[in-house]
Amino acid sequence: MTKISPRNNFTVVVLLPIVWVMLSTALALSLSLYLIFNSGKFKEKGVIYSVYAAKPLVLGDSTSSIGSSDSRSSSLNQLMEAYDCPLAGFGDKFVSEAEKNGIPYWFVAAISFQESNCGRKIPSDSYNAWGYGIYGGKVHKFDSWEDGIATVSLALKKYYFDQGLNEPCEIMKKYTPPSNGSWCDGIEFFKDKILNFKTPL
Fold first, then answer.
1. How far apart are CA 101 and CA 162, in angstroms?
2. Over the stretch 68-105, which tens digit does the pLDDT of each residue have?
3. Which pTM does this prediction carry?
4. Which of 51, 61, 105, 195 is packed most tightly, with the most Cβ within 10 A?
């Protein structure tokens, strides 16, 4: 067993803590002086941080709106212009009716692409780009494109989404029963076109 001499004991018990305190104090003092003398440099470089970077939301305040600046309506308009659709320019109507009825904004537009080549192939003077109420010799006519968008959006909500049918292939069975699956494939195709449309630079 090794004996600790009084001299080693003094070094371990007294001197080591004193040296540790002195080094810690010197380090803290150096760091404090550095921060004090260099604090202006941080401000000059714009490195200023704030605990509250964003203002809190106010109850009852809205942070979104639907209008011509809505990117969804703008994308719809540009996509329809690219395909030379008569429905180009009605992006706001598609989006506002979808919002009002709680359905995806792309759905009614995708149906128009699938059913009538986005309004290019419709019964004369019908404004019916959706194949809505068209069977046999019967043709449902709308007063305008806006009327058609509003009516079809409401019908999708009332007769499909409110009944738990919200996928294209589920809706197809009721909307166009004779389809062999090509209708829902077409809706999915145009959904992807709408959602992934990139504005040309």
1. 10
2. 447 899 999 999 999 999 999 999 999 999 999 999 99
3. 0.64
4. 105
Q: Which of 13, 113, 44, 62 is nearest to 122 (CA)?
A: 113
> Can you say whether the dihedral through the CA atoms of 96, 101, 104, 110 is positive or negative?
negative
* Residue appearing with tokens 């919002």: 99
Neighbouring residues of 26: CB distance < 8 A, sequence distance ≥ 6: none
Phi, psi of 138 (to 5 degrees): -85, 135
Q: What is the pLDDT of residue 41?
A: 54
Identity at 115, one-letter amino acid code: E
If one counts every other C-beta atom within 10 angstroms of the C-beta of residue 146, the result is: 14
Residue holding tokens 């003077």? 125
With CA atoms as reference, report the closest residue to 13 among 24, 4, 3.
Answer: 4
Q: Which of 72, 64, 66 is nearest to 196 (CA)?
A: 72
In a domain, 56, yes or no: no
* Cβ 155 vs Cβ 175: under 8 Å: no
Q: What is the reported pLDDT for 2?
A: 60
Residues of the chain with pLDDT under 50: 42-55, 65-69
Q: Do 87 and 1 fall into the same domain?
A: no
Helix (H) or strand (E) holding 25: helix 16-44
Query: Which structural domain range is residue 176 located in?
Result: 71-195
- The answer to whether position 51 is within a domain reads no
